[in-house]
Amino acid sequence: MKSKNLDKIIMLQLVLSLLSSIALPVGVVGTVLCAVNLGSVLSILGMAFFIACILVGFYGTPLLWTSYAKYKGMEKIKRAIIDEKISDTLQLSTHCNTSQKETNRRIAALISGGYLKGYTVDRGYTQIINLAEQSKQQEVKAANNICVVKCSGCGAKYEVSAESRKCPYCGSANVS
Length: 176
Description:
The chain is mainly α. The protein has helices at residues 6-36, 41-82, 89-95, 100-112, 131-143, and strands spanning 119-121, 128-130, 147-150, 157-160. Helix 2 (41-82) crosses helix 4 (100-112).
């Protein structure tokens, strides 16, 4: 279950962002130098190239840096989930210094984009679930004959083993 490599995308975004940042000043200087020597065909082609550099630098730089920041934010969340084992989305948003809504959006993007394989989120976006760990826990419960029951006395749901069928909330032994 190999996830997509987020690090490669981040590196590509960084390189493109740096190149577009350099393109604007290079384009301005190159346009001025070509304008001084406008008589030749080469200077006209050079001027067209440097004007293109200005456009890429002016319009592309903010877009590329914004995209880079988005992926870096996703990487921070991914590292917190995998390395630091943070599974509560509220705690994760505090840890990553983002709003709950933005954290949930980034988690959804990580999972749907294939960058965070083997994880899912509960319906309310409150817990991140490691599917491999969840499967192991279910196997342990099955091996120990642990199941979830509902008390017919108070209606509470709780886990019981084969030996203990007494409700921990009301003390009733009558469970379904």
